[in-house]
Amino acid sequence: MREILWTLESFPQDWRNVLDVLLVATALFIVFQLVRGTYADTLVRGIVILLVLVWLLSVLLNLRGFSWLLSHTLTALAIALPVIFQPELRRALNRLGRVGAVLGLDAIPGSAHDEVIAVVCHAIDRFIRERHGALIVFERETRLQEYVDTGVSLNARASDELLQTIFFPNTALHDGAAIIRGNLIAAGACVLPLSPSIRLPDHQMGLRHRAALGISEVSDAVAIAISEETGSITLAVDGRFIRGLDTARLNMALQQYFPVEPVPAIVRWLRRALVSGSQ
Known about the structure:
With 279 residues, this protein is an alpha+beta fold. 56% of the residues lie in helices and 14% in strands. It folds into 2 domains: 2-103, no CATH class; 111-262, YojJ-like (1. The two termini are 37 Å apart.
């Protein structure tokens, strides 16, 4: 406790103390942004609250034995955390690996997606009317080649007719995901990773929605799941669901993720952080 009081007294006297606090605050902000809206969100808060309470008890009451147990437990916890938060760590490392994209522009111009978005929304409108299920994934900065390889290679220009053919019931390709790369449908019947989330927002959501959420958790892809039972549209992005959409709102949402004018990724990240922080 004396060391804490001494640090607080000397804090304003050295600019490096201010820098130190800002760096720690930035690191914590990034960590909480990465787990925001995921199953790890409440788990992280629970661990932080528990550690603070235990630390206060051991320091204020001068419990030496408990402090010794806590110090050894933290070592084991540091080893266990990468296992517990494996999906979040994978997503964070994936983002760090795109340093060039963070400072630069999109690899694929947003204008290349403008026509595709209109085609997809038109096809989805028909899926809803005819109660056909569908799972469509837009590739963005993270390459999805490992998932493209699990399906049937197409590399065909995206069209309403082709999407209708892929997701027509009982056809060979309807039971997987169609991955769109640029203005091409790269492959159909692709197998996507399933989200490990224990609970989905709606009990009517099945494997199609779990796969849409899963691909958005391990990459920056945007996935659209159409329910054949209810005809509802669900957008999965950044490990979260956006529900209650119709084709008009879906078009607007997709335009936000694929702007006509390429926007630096750092600007998009800050914009998203501000929007999520205000909700």
